[in-house]
């Protein structure tokens, strides 16, 4: 809907509600007020929808970070157990710990950072 179409619609609505004896100055002011109110509501609705979408995307990022933190705690506990066994621990235990640490560092935290970067860059792209 164009600005002019909204203005025309607002003017028609105000005109139909006012008495015929109303002068043009009052009609013009009432039309402008109604048009401004409609425009403001349109902006608020758009802003609300955008903020809801941002909040949903940020919630997904936080969920990923929470999962990464949980996985990180598990890897840290495993590392502590392996360290306590040194020098008696087996190579297989060290290898498994190393694999878990690599998987953690390349997994969920990276995914969360990529989502955050995408969120930020999408916003910047829309601004440009």
SSE order: HHHH
What would you report as the Rg, rounded to the nearest angstrom? 30 Å
Q: How far apart are the termini?
A: 23 Å
The count of DSSP E runs of length 2 or more, i.e. the number of strands, is 0
The major beta sheet can be summarized as:
none
Number of helices: 4
Helix content: over 70%
Shape field: rod-shaped
As a percent range, the share of strand residues is under 5%
Question: How would you summarize what this structure contains?
Answer:
The protein has 4 helices and no strands. Helices cover about 90% and strands about 0% of the residues. The mean pLDDT is about 85.
Structure, described:
The chain is mostly helical and 128 residues long. Helices cover 88% and strands 0% of the residues. It has four helices and no strands. Helix 1 crosses helix 2, helix 2 packs antiparallel against helix 3 and helix 2 packs antiparallel against helix 4. The chain is rod-shaped, with a radius of gyration of 30 Å. The model has no long low-confidence stretch (mean pLDDT 84).
């Amino acid at each position: 809907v164009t600005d002019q179409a909204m203005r025309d619609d607002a003017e028609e609505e105000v005109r139909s509600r006012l008495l015929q004896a109303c002068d043009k100055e009052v009609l013009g002011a009432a039309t402008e007020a109604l048009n401004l109110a409609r425009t403001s509501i349109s902006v608020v609705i758009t802003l609300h929808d955008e903020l809801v979408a941002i909040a949903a995307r940020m919630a997904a990022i936080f969920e990923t970070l929470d999962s990464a933190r949980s996985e990180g705690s598990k890897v840290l506990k495993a590392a502590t157990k392996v360290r306590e066994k040194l020098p008696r621990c087996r190579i297989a235990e060290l290898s498994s710990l190393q694999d878990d640490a690599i998987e953690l560092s390349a997994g969920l935290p990276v995914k969360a950072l990529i989502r955050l970067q995408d969120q930020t860059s999408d916003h910047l792209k829309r601004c440009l």
